[in-house]
């Protein structure tokens, strides 16, 4: 809570017929009930409230008509009756109120006073403060996927979100998508982005993926960066993205806001929050495939997705059905994972601390990352040293790549916690939204019982990495090569490592024609299936920004800087 600072206005106003001392500073609106008697009354409701100006949604003058007052929304409010016989001026302040489980709601308080000039002065002062906040969006481009999740996107937007945007004075251009990739292609080629302060995505993780693909691509083209090259440092997108959750998993919304609630998301957009987010670029043989911000999963999560896509008719329940099916199927896959560990950063995947609103780890590591990029650019410009851009993340540079060969049930890269209602802690509970790294989780071949232990720990308090067959590394870059794509020399190496007999029996075992385990899985890239299995993944620190602030820490004790507590 901010300190109140210098007061801009202070008056005695009335709230529900009781006298209040009301004050406004640049940071806080406070209303404190005037003490009728100094005697402590245990049943008297809370008498002092304060709201950060940054969390005021709007202020509305109540207009008088025939003894009643009419709101902007047309509903009638009998203020005159409530206030007794006097004719009073009134204004209503709408503001953010926190509810349980990180949900936000729009609350309101109506102040009345007998002097019209005082009332107007209050309204104009609050409006001035809101207008001086340049981070609030005024014009938004909204894309609605009418088919995401339970097909409720249009209704959710119209009933829960649009009225709040109107109240906050935000104008919108709304596009209801007509086909898959409509939003992506519109952003890539058509949208007049200069007219907008942000983009809103009404849908699930798949729809969000469309939006970032359009926006990142467009930004690179506008900045003259080649988006196809895995070695290019991508230009960050200036437009923020708001997510109104209307999908099946909505993991990106849940992991950045703490809840999947359209009203909460709309309020974060209105107050102009900003949360940077890491983005992974995925390439195959120097060819761009996709971007990912949440999960890149091979093996278990790839198979769950492939299976569930054929069951879209089941709605969100398809993931549970395919999850159980793939768990019972128990396929494992052979391949080589190489990775560049993230050095010099704060934090590890086994930390007890969590990425929360205003995360200092993200700030520190983000800063470190931009200093490294600058250094690399300067070195390039002066041409004094010749570093292959592949090794741009020095000092871990040459010789720091590590390689692991094996049989894996799952290879997951979580660039954020991937928390969602199915897994409230997420796949990597200590992962950070904006630290420039991804957590590479390798689940080696093990028994069904052990794999179940690992999976169940996604939903319990126990550490899902504290198992002998699971390892986790915080990385900046990684590559995967399925065994059957390995070069002849790699396979020769295998021949040295294993006896001939073992190899042949394995090849036979992996061959689909034998009716046994398949050789390949596919990658689940934020809920989309990738067409290639051999991939090269690089994290781009804080490439995009959301209208969010990260998950807020729940208050533990009374805040002593709150003027009401003093
Ligand atoms: N008008 C449309 N018709 C058909 N498909 C669409 C349309 N608009 C978007 N899509 C596609 O629908 C897919 C799924 O959408 P979305 O992500 O909104 O819901 P979901 O898959 O149910 O949720 P989640 O991704 O959170 O699991 C996306 O891949 C998107 O490209
Ligand atoms: C015996 C079955 C046990 C099931 C184990 C439950 C664990 C659930 C964990 C879900 C994590 C989902 C991570 C999110 C990924 C999203 O990117 C993606 C797109 O929406 N969603 C999915 C389900 O792939
Ligand atoms: Ca990250």
From TrEMBL:
GO terms for molecular function: ceramide kinase activity. This is DAGKc domain-containing protein. One of its GO terms (cellular component) is membrane. Gene3D superfamilies: 2.60.200.40, Probable inorganic polyphosphate/atp-NAD kinase, domain 1 (3.40.50.10330). Residues 135-286 form the DAGKc domain. Signal peptide: none annotated. GO terms for biological process: ceramide metabolic process. SMART domains: DAGKc. It comes from Oreochromis aureus (Israeli tilapia).
């Amino acid at each position: 809570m901010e300190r109140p600072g210098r007061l801009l206005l202070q008056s005695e106003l009335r709230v529900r017929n009781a006298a209040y001392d009301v004050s406004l500073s640049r940071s806080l609106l406070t209303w404190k009930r005037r003490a009728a008697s100094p005697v402590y009354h245990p049943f008297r409701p809370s008498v002092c409230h304060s709201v950060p100006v940054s969390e005021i949604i709007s202020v509305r003058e109540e207009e008088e008509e025939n003894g009643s007052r009419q709101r902007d929304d047309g509903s009638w409010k009998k203020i005159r009756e409530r206030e007794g016989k006097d004719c009073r001026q009134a204004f209503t302040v709408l503001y953010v109120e926190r509810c349980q489980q990180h949900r936000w709601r729009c609350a309101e308080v109506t102040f009345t006073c007998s002097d019209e000039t005082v009332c107007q002065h209050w309204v104009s002062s609050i409006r001035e403060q809101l207008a001086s906040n340049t981070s609030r969006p005024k014009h938004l481009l909204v894309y609605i996927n009418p088919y995401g999740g339970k097909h409720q996107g249009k209704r959710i937007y119209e009933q829960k979100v649009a009225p709040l945007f109107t109240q906050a004075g935000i104008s919108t251009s709304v596009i209801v998508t007509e086909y898959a990739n409509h939003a992506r292609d519109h952003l890539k080629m058509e949208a007049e982005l200069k007219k907008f302060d942000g983009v809103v995505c009404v849908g699930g993780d798949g729809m969000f993926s469309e939006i970032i693909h359009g926006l990142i691509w467009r930004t690179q083209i506008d900045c003259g960066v080649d988006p196809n090259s895995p070695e290019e440092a991508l230009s960050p997108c200036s437009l923020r993205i708001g997510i109104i959750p209307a999908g099946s998993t909505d993991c990106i919304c849940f992991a950045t806001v703490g809840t999947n609630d359209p009203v909460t998301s709309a309020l974060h957009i209105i107050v102009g929050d900003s949360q940077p987010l890491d983005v992974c670029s995925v390439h195959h043989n120097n060819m761009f495939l996709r971007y990912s911000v949440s999960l890149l999963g091979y093996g278990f999560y790839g198979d769950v997705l492939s299976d569930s896509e054929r069951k879209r008719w089941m709605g969100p329940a398809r993931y549970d059905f395919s999850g159980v099916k793939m768990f019972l199927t128990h396929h494992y896959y052979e391949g080589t994972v190489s990775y560049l560990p993230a050095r010099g950063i704060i934090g590890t995947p086994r930390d007890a601390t969590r990425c929360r609103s205003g995360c200092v780890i993200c700030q520190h590591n983000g800063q470190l990352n931009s200093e490294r990029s600058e250094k690399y650019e300067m070195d390039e410009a002066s041409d004094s040293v010749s570093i292959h851009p592949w090794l741009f993340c020095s000092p871990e540079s040459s010789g720091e790549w590590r390689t692991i060969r094996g049989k894996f049930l799952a290879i997951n890269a979580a660039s954020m916690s991937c928390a969602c209602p199915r897994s409230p802690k997420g796949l990597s509970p200590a992962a950070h939204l904006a630290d420039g790294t991804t957590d590479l989780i390798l689940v080696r071949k093990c028994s069904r019982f052990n794999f179940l232990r690992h999976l169940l720990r996604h939903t319990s308090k126990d550490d899902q990495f504290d198992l002998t067959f699971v390892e986790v590394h915080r990385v900046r870059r990684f590559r995967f090569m399925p065994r059957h794509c390995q070069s002849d020399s790699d396979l020769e190496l295998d021949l040295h490592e294993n006896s001939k007999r073992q190899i042949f029996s394995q090849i036979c075992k992996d061959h689909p024609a034998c009716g046994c385990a398949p050789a390949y899985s596919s990658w689940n890239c934020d809920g989309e299936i990738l067409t290639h299995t051999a991939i090269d993944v690089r994290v781009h620190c804080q490439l995009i920004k959301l209208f969010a602030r990260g998950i807020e820490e729940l208050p533990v004790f009374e805040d002593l800087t709150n003027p009401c507590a003093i």
